[in-house]
Amino acid sequence: MNSALPVEEVYREVHDGETEAQIILLDAKSAFDKVIHTHMMRRVYQAGIEDKHWSLISSLHQNAASTIKWGGNISECFPVSLGVRQGGILSTDLYKLYVNPLLDRLENSNLGIRIGNITCNASACADDIALMSTKEDDTQVLINMAHDFAYMEGYELQPQKSVALNLLSKTHKKNNTNECIFNIGNNVMPKVKQALHLGIIRTTSMKENVTLNVEENIKKARRSAYGLFGGGFHRHNGPRNTGTPV
């Protein structure tokens, strides 16, 4: 919810300010599996985790090995030299520390959208990263920064799954003829009307955003209700309440 809030505020800023903005939703391929251990441990230290706590985290990733269990059979051990431990309690937090330098660089760039005096050019929850800007040139620079960071850290931003949303206020929507084109590396990023981010449907306008998410939440509530009652509602054969409705 904390990561979704800045994105929601950008929608409101566009709507209230009668302006436009771009939201870039980045998709990293197997980001948790590509973490370089030495880089991660350096960032753990820089975060102020030292002494035995640092050593304990380091020992969990040094000379690590895994096996695969399938059909009651267990494979031979194989070394795990990259990535955070699958299912580990600390894995998500360790990845957040690992990717935090990118967020610092984006913030320090002073590019992208600002709400008041607060820079809101990026929001992230682990490997789900959204970039936000009101200027196309700034947007492309932010994308380039994220792409360069991914290259240095050994993971890949998928150009066909990372998408661009062009947010338009009601005034701009009527007069918009501009087709924004953004690139990840040498690949053109798809421009879409709708995408899912952190479980929330994001569209090109605030009104559509609200409508689609309300409808989706109603569907989820119906599915939960039907599941709760075993797939349907049962007739109650007891005496009917004939009191006056309030």
TrEMBL record:
Pfam families: RVT_1
PANTHER family, per the entry: REVERSE TRANSCRIPTASE DOMAIN-CONTAINING PROTEIN, REVERSE TRANSCRIPTASE-LIKE PROTEIN WITH RNA-DIRECTED DNA POLYMERASE DOMAIN
Start and end residues of each Reverse transcriptase domain: 1-188
InterPro entries reported for this sequence: DNA/RNA_pol_sf (IPR043502), RT_dom (IPR000477)
Name of the featured protein: Reverse transcriptase domain-containing protein
Source species of the chain: Mytilus galloprovincialis
Highest taxon of source: Eukaryota
